[in-house]
Amino acid sequence: MSATKTSLPTLTDEQRVAALEKAKASRVFRAQLKKDIGNGTVDIAGLIKGELGAFSEDEAALVNKTRVLDLLKAVRGVGAVRAAELMNQVDINERRRLGGLGARQREALVDKLSVD
Q1: CB 109 within 8 A of CB 86
Q2: Which of 24, 55, 92, 94 could join 60 in a cystine, given CB atoms 3.0 to 4.6 angstroms apart?
Q3: How would you classify residue 104: left for phi > 0, otherwise alpha for psi between -120 and 50, otherwise beta?
């Protein structure tokens, strides 16, 4: 079985600049989201449950593409170790993104957060 190599498409300068701006906007949005989780403006349980009505369609897509571990670490009083423990207790891979969680995983994680 031979693997075929495909090269990345060649981007024009305008396309490259647009892609860089989009990536920067994504990073800025995620940083603000984590800051809002930390100060309590955004409810982490609501995000986990999938309550994304306050976000635009593009923002909701970015939220769903954010790693669960990063969101948990943003919660006040939950550091890297505690977030990893929570993920392990609920049997969620550390690389899992919010949009990739199943209903049972979401429910179990919200339960763990409300207990602790």
Answers
A1: yes
A2: 55
A3: alpha
Contacts of 102 (CB under 8 A, 6+ apart): none
Q: Provide the b/e sequence for 29-43 (b: ≥16 CB within 10 Å).
A: bbeebbeebbeeebe
Q: What is the pLDDT of residues 2-61, one digit of tens each?
A: 567 788 788 899 999 999 999 999 999 999 999 999 999 999 999 999 999 899 999 999
Quote the tokens at residue 60. 């909701």
Q: Are 67 and 33 in contact (CB under 8 A)?
A: no
Cβ atoms of residues 76 and 42 within 8 Å: no
Residue 113: what are its φ and ψ, rounded to 5°? -70, -35
What pTM, to 2 d.p., does this model score? 0.84
Q: State whether the Cα torsion 49-55-61-62 is positive or negative.
A: negative
